[in-house]
Amino acid sequence: QVQLVESGGGLVQAGGSLRLSCTASGRAFQTSPMGWWRQSPGKEREFVAALSWRGEVTYYSDSLEGRFTISRDNAQNTVYLQMNSLKTEDTAVYYCAAATRGWYSGSFDSPLPYDYWGQGTQVTVSS
Asked: Which tens digits make up the pLDDT trace of 33-85?
């Protein structure tokens, strides 16, 4: 099993930056692809970014326009999301998730392979 705890959210002005962290317990983390997702009020949870278990392959939502970077440190059991040039529309609860059985058929941007989720961290971007 994997337990995930996100941190680093908060209030930031538009144009600012935040770095989210997701710390995992459980050995399965180190061999699990990971993803970041977000959900705004009244909207469905949406894919943000994902990376392979070694971190050499990364995927991003096209809507981010290159502003976010996902990375991981397996020695620290942590995955990060660096968010730059934040916009008000980035306001959401951000969740990290682990796909302990791996992705299948290129499903990195589907919630289906992610079997463990954190509790989320709120990011609020003010204008």
From this structure: 999 999 999 999 999 999 999 999 999 999 998 999 999 999 999 999 999 99
- Residue 108, both tokens: 């990195």
The residue behind tokens 């989320």 is 120
Report the distance separating Cα 18 and Cα 1, nearest Å: 28
Q: Which amino acid is at 38?
A: R
Rounded Cα distance between 35 and 30, Å, is: 13
Sign for the CA dihedral angle at 44, 71, 88, 12 comes to positive
**Nearest Cα to 52, choosing from 105, 4, 99?**
99
Q: CB-hemisphere CA count at 13 Å for 35?
A: 27
**14 phi, psi to nearest 5 deg:** -55, 135
Task: Please check whether residue 48 is in contact with residue 90, taking contact to mean a CB–CB distance below 8 angstroms.
Answer: no
Closest CA to 15 of 98, 83, 95, 109: 83
